[in-house]
Specification:
This protein is mostly beta strands and about 130 residues long. The protein has 2 domains: about 40 residues, no CATH class; about 70 residues, OB fold (Dihydrolipoamide Acetyltransferase, E2P). The strands form 2 sheets. A 5-stranded mixed beta barrel has the order 4-5-6-8-7. A hairpin with a 4-residue loop joins strand 5 and strand 6. It binds zinc ion (ZN). Zinc ion binds next to loops. GO terms for molecular function: DNA binding.
């Protein structure tokens, strides 16, 4: 799906790009394909996928750009989500209990501000 970058829907979804020559999808968006160097068109990614791998960030990242929450730094989970769009996206995993995290679990990624965030996909929306 090609969208106008000024379209208001762009802020809601993950702004990626898809190569018009070899169909590789990238995130974040880039004007050139990393595989063949061909031109890439902007595309809003669907954002649904499964957890590919993950870890726990146990120390505060460099600030800036990291901004600790008002209560101070807390360890958080971060991982790669393999999207249905055939691209892996790094995201903070918004699950309170890290014991609930499983490789392969269905997740939905949203852009928001800064690093993308991933939450468990509600049952029934896994094929959306
Ligand atoms: Zn390409």
């Amino acid at each position: 799906m090609v969208v106008d970058p000024r379209s208001p829907t762009v802020t809601d979804g993950l702004q990626g790009a898809r190569c018009s020559d070899c169909s590789v999808t990238v995130y974040p968006a880039d004007d050139a394909c990393p595989r063949c160097g061909g031109p890439a068109d902007r595309a809003v990614l669907r954002g649904t996928g499964t957890l590919w791998t993950w870890t726990v960030q146990r120390y505060a990242p460099k600030s800036p750009p990291y901004q600790p929450p008002p209560g101070g730094f807390e360890p958080f989970a971060v991982g790669y989500v393999e999207l249905a769009d055939d691209v892996r996206v790094a995201a903070v995993l918004d699950l309170d209990d890290h014991d609930d995290i499983r490789i392969g679990m269905p997740l939905t990624v949203t852009a928001g501000h800064g690093v993308p965030r991933a939450r468990p996909t509600p049952p029934g929306e896994e094929r959306a």
